[in-house]
Write a structure and sequence with these properties.
This protein is α/β, with parallel strands linked by helices. It has one domain: Aldolase class I (TIM Barrel), CATH 3.20.20.70. Strands 3-4-5-6-7-8-9-10 form an eight-stranded parallel beta barrel, surrounded by seven helices. A two-stranded antiparallel ribbon has the order 1-2. The protein is globular and about 45 Å long. It starts with a strand and ends with a helix. Bound molecules: phosphoenolpyruvate.
Amino acid sequence: MSTTLNQSSSQPRQHWVIGNWKMNPNRATAQTLAQTLASRLVETPLHTCKTAIAPMSIHLITIHEILMKVHTSPISLVAQDIAAARQTGAFTGDISADLIRETGAEWIIIGHSERRTIHHEDENLIGLKLNAALDAGLGVIWCVGETLSEREAGQATQVVSAQINAHIDILTKIDPRKLIIAYEPVWAIGTGRTASPEDAQQMHAAIRQLLTEIRAPLIQTSLLYGGSVKSDNAHSLAKCPDIDGALVGGASLDADSFLQIAKAFDIA
Ligand code: PEP
């Protein structure tokens, strides 16, 4: 376990660096990337930071087999989406949380801005997916974040707080070990623009305060920053007291970059 001691708690919070591969890469490259990451993390283990990767759903089983060949896998498996529907049946194109669980995935990304925007996922659907995931025993990597116009209007904290408050019913009952929150300002995702460490820290502190007001044990929730994290900006983000890791898109497709980011958060 790691690493950042919270002022109000003697428990260290877990650090995570999670690669969101999105709709990349093809099967052969995905296999090579997973194999490379697993081998290198076995050769040079991290001390405190956990890692995870989120390949496309069609690759989950193959990647799980690769990770399981390593005696104790240093990488957890994450799925990028689940259906709101819980049972098998007439849901063309969907994959339920239980079926995702069968692939070996332990975590699921929910509320990513690309799902909110491209697939018009609203808070109602996000709530259904959060509940479906937790009922199936998956941990959730729950993404929140404001758009550029919302930030420029001075509404960033209000928007993110509303996204979290929309699911208070879940937060009042969730096992904190099953929850990771990723603050991902929409304007920083895939754009090369990163929130300054000061702005990111300020938002993370606000999220932590809100979570703690909702329920004291949630002070332990790992809060990740996401939005154009690269090896060259990871260290300054990792120095922020409320940033417990990163959700990494583009840079996670390169083994060296991903591992350098993970090392930046591997803080004793
Ligand atoms: C993401 O997809 O969650 C993300 C943060 O992407 P990128 O690192 O490419 O901005």
